Amino acid sequence: MRDNDPVTSATRQPEPPASPKLSTSLESGGAPVVKPRLIATDLDGTLLRDDKSVSPRTVAALAAAEEAGIEVFFVTGRPARWMDVVSDHVHGHGLAICGNGAAVVDLHGGPGAHRFVKIRELARENALDAVRLVREAAPGTVYAVEQTYGFYQEPDYPKLHMEVPDALAPAEELLAPGSVAAGQPVLKILAHHPTLDPDAFLTVARLAVGERATITRSSPSALLEISGPGVSKASTLALCCAERGISHEEVVAFGDMPNDIEMLTWAGRSYAMGNAHPDAIAAASGRTVANNEDGVAVVIERLLGERR
Q1: Rg (alpha carbons) of the chain, rounded to whole number
Q2: Do residues 87 and 107 lie in contact, with contact meaning Cβ atoms separated by under 8 Å?
Q3: Are 72 and 41 in contact, with CB atoms under 8 Å apart?
Q4: Given the DSSP bridges, would you call strands 71-75 and 167-168 parallel, antiparallel or unpaired?
Q5: Which of 268, 265, 259, 181 is nearest to 214 (CA)?
Q6: What's the CA gap between 259 and 225, in Å, rounded?
Q7: pTM over 0.85
Q8: How far is 250 from 73, CA to CA, in rounded Å?
Q9: Which residues make Cβ contacts (< 8 Å) with residue 25, sequence separation at least 6?
Q10: 56-to-35, 47, 53, 61, 88 alpha-carbon distances in Å
Q11: 81/184 Cα distance (integer angstroms)
Q12: What is the pLDDT of residues 218-239, one digit of tens each?
């Protein structure tokens, strides 16, 4: 996510038993094209324009995809309470993957009335280990704690989000048993460093934490997102697809930042935006134009044309 709107490792698993049907159209290399059954799209920097709007062209493309029988999943680093930007564009099942895979949310209730369908929490002992290890490796790191319905932060954590935290306290206190934040699952920890290069900070943190947690980033600043081991957009999307009998070859994914890399790698067809991070571009099988140029809609329109 971006700084004021609020990245991990997944393999292709689990592989559902679907037997995809091939269309008669061909990619440029001449290989048969698998008909898409699900579109998975990131929001910030991807589906949304920089002003956080969804263009009329994109709204029409999403609706046309659903009408053609292709499911659309919003897959984002945003928490569920920040999904109002797309609440008017929910079609069909209305499910979204939030918090970089930490939660599957039913958006049908509208803003403030969403329902958690699946939660993949970050165990508090893992969170405490990550907080300690990253702080040791990168002194000056400050934290916020993202829960299902709560948001807590340390006093020195910058005001990156347009919201008031439920409480201010050191992360170690917030994650302790019996704390003010003890009643809800932890979805992810946010770690901010005031001076480090964002990619350098990500490398340092991953080396320090190892397999205790999944660490990624989606902000242009040095803001990391720490989730449970194995939790990513890709791994949760794979679970949702397996439940529907959809194979990874039948998924088309869109993204722009490091937290999209595993999803872009896992999907049968994937597109990095024209404005994407270099690592996201390297991970995707294709590229479209920038978010402000309706890059997602451009591809969806072409995909629907292939189906005719």
Answers
A1: 19
A2: yes
A3: yes
A4: unpaired
A5: 259
A6: 9
A7: yes
A8: 13
A9: 33, 306
A10: 25, 12, 9, 9, 12
A11: 15
A12: 999 999 999 999 999 999 999 9
